[in-house]
Design goal:
It contains 12 helices and no strands. With 286 residues, it is mainly alpha-helical.
């Protein structure tokens, strides 16, 4: 069952990314898109939590804050990248977080990763370099944001697996509330570039779709990680990439060259291997 939840969540997040990219192409600033991603799931989450009788928490446990803050950093970085690069490229980079988990086991647990993990890291970095678009203004900074998102996701997912005693909607609401604060700060910093009043009806429908897709994806991801082993369940999350490639191909007729495909493979294959074989998953916050 955890794998089915993650499959549904992967498609929901791929659809969310496509809608975010479409909203950007219709003139919507990325901080507004990030706000939609954070605010609507918070609204839906509070309504569903109250209806289901879920007990919401705020200050405790401490690991909940680690999960929410790390997830919020990942959200902001991801949406900046999603609105500047092809969706499949961004999801490829952000899904390399299991490699970060294996590397983080060294400073946090004192367990030096085996040579195979370092080889996986080298392959992933090579893949990132292959899929980046040097002709795009600020391409290096955008890719760096995607990498930062993957690192933050590693921390968030490890924390999520330690929250099995909490109601799923309590986790979703807490994360969405913290993420909303991060997105509000980002919007205020970029206030002069938002132009919210100029957005058309189509953009507002896309923003609603982003919020709904994010809520469905967040629910599915949370249930999958709470119910199953993070490393193994995460393998299914890699389907976000082919889902995004298929949707981009259908909507924008976007072709992928051989070098890009090689880069994606160099990231996803080592990442999948680390997901399956990583022994340190779930131990970092014990």
């Amino acid at each position: 069952m955890p794998y089915l939840w993650m499959l549904c969540g992967s498609f929901a997040f791929a659809l969310m990314g496509i809608q975010a990219r479409a909203a950007k192409e219709y003139g919507c600033a990325w901080p507004v898109i990030a706000l939609a991603r954070a605010s609507l799931p918070l609204l839906f989450g509070v309504i569903i939590a109250r209806a289901s009788g879920a007990r919401l928490v705020f200050w405790r446990p401490r690991i909940l804050w680690i999960r929410s803050i790390a997830g919020s950093v990942s959200l902001v970085c991801t949406f900046y990248a999603l609105t500047h690069l092809p969706v499949a490229y961004v999801f490829t980079v952000t899904n390399m977080f299991p490699v970060w988990v294996a590397v983080l086991s060294w400073p946090l647990l004192g367990e030096a990763p085996p040579a195979s993990v370092w080889l996986s890291m080298a392959c992933a970095i090579t893949g990132v370099w292959l899929i980046h678009e040097p002709s795009l203004e600020g391409a290096n900074w955008i890719i760096l944001c995607a990498v930062a998102a993957s690192l933050s996701t590693a921390v968030a997912m490890l924390g999520l697996h330690r929250l099995r005693e909490l109601d799923i909607w309590a986790i979703v609401v807490h994360f969405s509330a913290v993420a909303l604060m991060f997105c509000l700060v980002t919007a205020l910093v970029n206030w002069e570039e938002l132009h919210v009043s100029a957005l058309g009806v189509r953009v507002w429908w896309l923003l609603l779709g982003i919020g709904v897709s994010a809520t469905v994806g967040q629910l599915c991801l949370t249930k999958a990680f709470v119910a199953g082993a993070p490393g193994k369940v995460s393998v299914v999350a890699l389907l976000q990439v082919p889902f995004a490639l298929a949707l981009e191909g259908l909507i924008w007729d976007r072709a992928v060259n051989v070098v890009t495909v090689l880069g994606i493979v160099l990231i996803l294959v080592p990442t999948a291997w680390v997901m399956i074989s990583n022994r340190s998953e779930g131990q970092l916050f014990d």
